[in-house]
Amino acid sequence: MLTRHRKELLLARLRQDGQIVAKSLSEELGLSEDTIRRDLRDLASEGLLQRVHGGALPASPALGNFAERQQISGDAKPAIARAAAAMIAPGQVVFIDGGTTAVQLARALPQDLQCTVVTHSPSVAVELAGHPLMEVILIGGRLFKHSIVTMGPSALEAIAQIRTDIYFMGVCSLHPDSGISTGDFDEAGVKRAISNMAQRTVVLASPEKLDTASPYQIAPLSQVSAIVVTRDAPEALLARYRTMGIDVVKA
């Protein structure tokens, strides 16, 4: 079988099954595992899938820059934001992540909501500047331009001093096996630190992020209390999250 044909077959199988197990596929096709793994490495380098131990998972389309991500799931993100906003009770201390869905969440918060919002996203902080009853704490540090958030030692030090009721996390990928993940090593560490300081971690999951993987794991799904998805998200995708004890909130 020609290399091109093998790769087309691998991508077709990934679309069909949602994952590739190298050992099983090599036995089915009568090819060596080394050949399958080499093809998977090539496809991963082209951004067409994400390598994981033993095979591959779909790559998240949410790995593009901030401007590109604003064009993805444009209708879904405001709906997810409204559902997430309804989860905040007066008087709570909440952490709102960076990213395009997080900005929509900030826009969805009522003007008369009295709470404290902590964020390392300048974009989120600016959205909340006009809320008269809301205390806004902006974490400083080096600006990570991909997600328009601050990172680095000073950001981590500040995060470690604030316990929050809810952390609304934005991710590139969410998968029952590989957990929650993103495309930058340092960003994964910052998100993990924020989650560790929160009583509840709620993942904002627009449709393209479900059942995909990105290079750097933030945490296993046991760290997640709830995910907010669109109303039309397929039940077949959501069932495994429910069986893991995660609340699934449909927007």
TrEMBL record:
Entry GO MF terms: DNA binding; DNA-binding transcription factor activity
Stored Gene3D superfamilies: 3.40.50.1360, Winged helix-like DNA-binding domain superfamily/Winged helix DNA-binding domain (1.10.10.10)
Entries under InterPro entries matching the protein: Carb_Metab_HTH_regulators (IPR050313), DeoR-like_C (IPR014036), DeoR_HTH (IPR001034), NagB/RpiA_transferase-like (IPR037171), Tscrpt_reg_HTH_DeoR_CS (IPR018356), WH-like_DNA-bd_sf (IPR036388), WH_DNA-bd_sf (IPR036390)
Keyword annotations: DNA-binding, Repressor, Transcription, Transcription regulation
HTH deoR-type domain sequence ranges: 3-58
Pfam families in UniProt: DeoRC, HTH_DeoR
Domain of life: Bacteria
Protein's recorded name: DeoR family transcriptional regulator
UniProt organism field: Duganella alba
